[in-house]
Specification:
The N terminus is likely disordered. Helices cover 29% and strands 24% of the residues. It has a five-stranded mixed sheet with strand order 4-8-7-6-5. Strands 2-1-3 form a three-stranded antiparallel sheet. The protein is an alpha+beta fold and 213 residues long.
Length: 213
């Protein structure tokens, strides 16, 4: 019965619209470490890369989840040795019910907000907003980001397993900003950078940058 259940769980990780990456042998996640990231020596015998994605949620599509290991040129590994992200990896994909908006938490601290208004304030004003609109703008932006994420409207960010492995898996979420006042009826395509944290938390790295057509 346990064998059948194991196969069912593996199939759910292949065919589900959303997945949760989980290493059942590793109790550590990105939440256990500071902003300095996951030090490899502290998670041994587990992998720092795998620790950063442990218990994280992803749309089960190419370029929206961590890239799996390609074993085509590594014939020396047998089936049992071929882990998900590297040889002997313990990570498994498990099917996840599509997240709802209320399942997602956006972490966007005041420093990031201030950075946006100080460095990109010209965008904000050019979209028709005023200083008095800042709080409502941030609230609406978070709502747009959550809606986009649960629709899977994002792509993997720049993520090199060697360079970025300590800090977590990066994604860029696509949002469209509505113009207001004199710019009502105009729409501006942007993207917002995040690190994926366990169980539906998304921590902002870059509030907004222009999206290339």
């Amino acid at each position: 019965m346990n064998i059948l259940k194991g196969y069912e769980e593996q199939l759910s990780g292949i065919f589900s619209d959303w997945i949760k990456v989980q290493d059942f042998k590793n109790p550590l996640t990105l939440d256990n470490f500071s902003k300095n990231g996951v030090p490899a020596e502290m998670v041994k015998p587990h992998c720092a890369v795998c620790t950063t994605v442990n218990q994280c949620w992803f749309k089960n599509e190419e370029n929206k989840k961590p890239k799996e290991m390609d074993y085509d040129s590594y014939s020396k590994f047998n089936r049992k040795q071929k882990g998900l992200y590297h040889p002997y990896c313990h990570c498994q994909k498990r099917g996840l019910n599509p997240p709802k908006e209320e399942d997602i938490k956006i972490v966007l601290d005041k420093n990031k907000e201030n950075y946006f208004f100080n460095s990109k304030g010209n965008w904000f004003y050019s979209w028709g907003y005023k200083d008095k609109d800042k709080n409502d703008f941030i609230k609406t932006l978070k709502e747009k980001i959550i809606k986009a994420y649960v629709r899977g409207n994002y792509i993997n960010g720049k993520y090199d397993f060697e360079e970025q492995k300590k800090y977590g898996f990066r994604i860029n979420i696509f949002v469209t900003i509505d113009g207001v006042n004199e710019n009502k009826g105009h729409f501006y395509d942007m993207k917002s950078g995040f690190i994926v944290y366990p169980n539906g938390r998304l921590k902002n790295t870059t509030p907004l940058i222009r999206r290339e057509k």
